[in-house]
Amino acid sequence: MSGFEIAGLVLGAIPLITKAFDDYRRVVASVQVWRHYEVEVSCLILNLNSEYYRLERICGKYLSSLDPGTDFDSMTSDPFGPLWKDEVVQRKIKARLESSYGKFQLVMEEFRKAINFIKDKLDLDAQWKVKWTEESKIKAEFKRASFVLQKSVYKDALESLQKNLSILDSMMKDDMDAEPQRQKRYKGRLVGLIRQTSGNIYYALRDSMPCKIDCRHQVHMDIAPDSEDATHELDDAEIIEKLGFQLAMTYHTNTSEVIPERPGQQIILEEVTVRASAPQVASLLEPTPATQSPSHPQRKAVSFASSRKTTVTTTYIKQPSTTAALTSTMSTLKLTAGAINLPRQVNMCEELRRSHENGISGTISHQNAGKSWNFTIYPKKTTETPNSRSVISLKQILENPPKTKMPFMAKIHLAKMISSSFLQLHQTPWLPNILTSQDVYFITDGSRPYPNLKQAFIKKELPGKFPKDRSMNIDARGLSSSPLLSLGILLLELELGTTIGKLRRPDEPSDADVVERLLEETPLDALGSGRYKSAVFRCVGGNYFRSTQDFNDENFRKAVYERVVAPLEADLEEFTL
Asked: Which InterPro entries does the annotation name (predicted)?
């Protein structure tokens, strides 16, 4: 019996035990010589009820912190039921308590011993009911009955319940107090896994587009991957399997070219979801020895935790770059021959050229030094036709804004999304250098003033080489400040509703000069509680971060998260309430 299941047992047993004591109290009240036991029995019932409500409060509060959607009322109404045995709950508790889980189990075992001791002394049957409820039967068992009704008999058991409930209460409180920091650590871990996975999706897409004709594919990736089902108690491989990346792909052709499959269309839009396919992280896969290119230095990386059924190794995968090879990590897993039948490998160029009533589906992969990342493509369900939609950049919206202002909450939500995605994508193939309003796109059907601002995309053109560096018009602080400066400029443009270029004065040669003036002139405090302005200032201020901004460095990403992303998250949470 698991620890948490014992908590349900205790919550179910105490009311039955108090009922048994109450039955005995009712009988002894009718026997003159035993009436002094009535006070002792009443005291026992009071003590047990007190411990019951303590345990109920502790369990309810802790379950709410684990999962706010937990129906604790249903659990308490059926304390011996299956909800107390739920494997997901057990797993979450074990992951949350970490090294304290063993102590939790010992405490629960002491609960079980104390409750069983009381049950045995009361001589309850298998259904926790009293065996003698009539006065004649109690008189026949006079010596035993008088012993059972003495409070001192249960002294040790009650003290054990009280002591261990105090230990449990303290343990649960400490764990809940530590949860915010634990979530911060998990977010850092999740960012690292998204960086790895999204980068390999890019290369898998590039490998799946062996275009033989003059065609261009623009791939727009949602900057906020679906990670709702990924939780910190999962290992790295399981988290990757639960990540979902939304892609919107366009196919551009020359106007002179005729496409028999889609006559008359020059721009075609297809939306899909991409996930790491199960075989990549399942126990059907066997590990591949790690290798590393000797020409590139080893970098700090995220190693995959071992899965439940397989040993995993860390492998460094070399990717091309203009300044240095990108180094990423992956628990490299190879398919056992014949272990599983994968969906068909797709040629994305050919798939986009065809007409698809049911959308694109299949698998894509990226091979590197005999190692593989495999991804499954699922069509995205939509009621709109592909040629009824188009993409529009944030820059286009800011330079030619609709008559109505961008909604207040949309700005805050978009600022949080963009800053989070910067951590996840900068120095990956999707965003190797700076981020500007020209890089952020939305899907629109043209029927409303603004597109769906809750879903933003970043665009890449395929097939193509790893993009060359783009420089910015920055000041003497040097190129090393350009990544965060670009983010600060984008956040500032979003709040002002226009671009820096339109606000530049003739005597301002650099973007940093324009930003510095605007931060002095513009009351950004109107958007949030001053946190928005603080986040922008930290991006453009040279004293908040080191001169070398390496987003492959986990410690640097953590600093950016705490000083830029977290304040924007706080704004969003505050105004959502």
From this structure: DUF7580
Residue 21 identity: F
| Beta strand pairing call for 314-319 and 216-222 | unpaired
Contact criterion met (CB below 8 Å) for 55 and 10? yes
pLDDT in tens, 418-470: 999 999 999 999 998 889 999 999 988 878 889 999 999 999 888 665 444 44
Taking the C-alpha atoms of residue 336 and residue 241, their distance in angstroms, rounded to an integer, is: 19
Distance CA 271, CA 345 (A): 18
Residue 236 CB contacts under 8 Å (≥ 6 apart), including other chains: 189, 193, 302, 303, 304, 305, 331
CB atoms within 10 A of CB 116: 13
Both structure tokens of 358: 């049911």
What type of residue is 243? L
Q: Who has greater pLDDT, 535 or 127?
A: 535
Q: Distance between the two ends of the chain, CA-based, in angstroms? A: 40
CA distances from 320 to 327, 435, 468 (A): 9, 20, 11
d(CA 279, CA 262): 35
Q: Is the peptide bond before 432 cis (omega within 30 degrees of 0)?
A: no
Q: Residues near 412 by Cβ (< 8 Å), separated by ≥ 6?
A: 527, 528, 532, 568, 571, 572, 575
DSSP 8-state code for residue 544: S
Is residue 221 within a helix (H) or strand (E), and if so which, with residue range?
strand 216-222
Long-range CB contacts (within 8 A, 24+) of 20-28: 20/122, 20/124, 20/128, 20/129, 20/130, 21/45, 21/48, 21/122, 23/130, 23/133, 24/122, 24/130, 24/138, 24/145, 24/148, 24/149, 27/133, 27/134, 27/135, 27/138, 28/138, 28/149
Give the H/E segment covering residue 393.
strand 390-393
d(C-alpha 334, C-alpha 371), whole Å: 7
Query: pTM above 0.85?
Result: no
Q: Could you please report the per-residue DSSP string of 46-97?
A: HHHHHHHHHHHHHHHHHHHHH-TT--HHHHHHSTTSGGGG-HHHHHHHHHHH
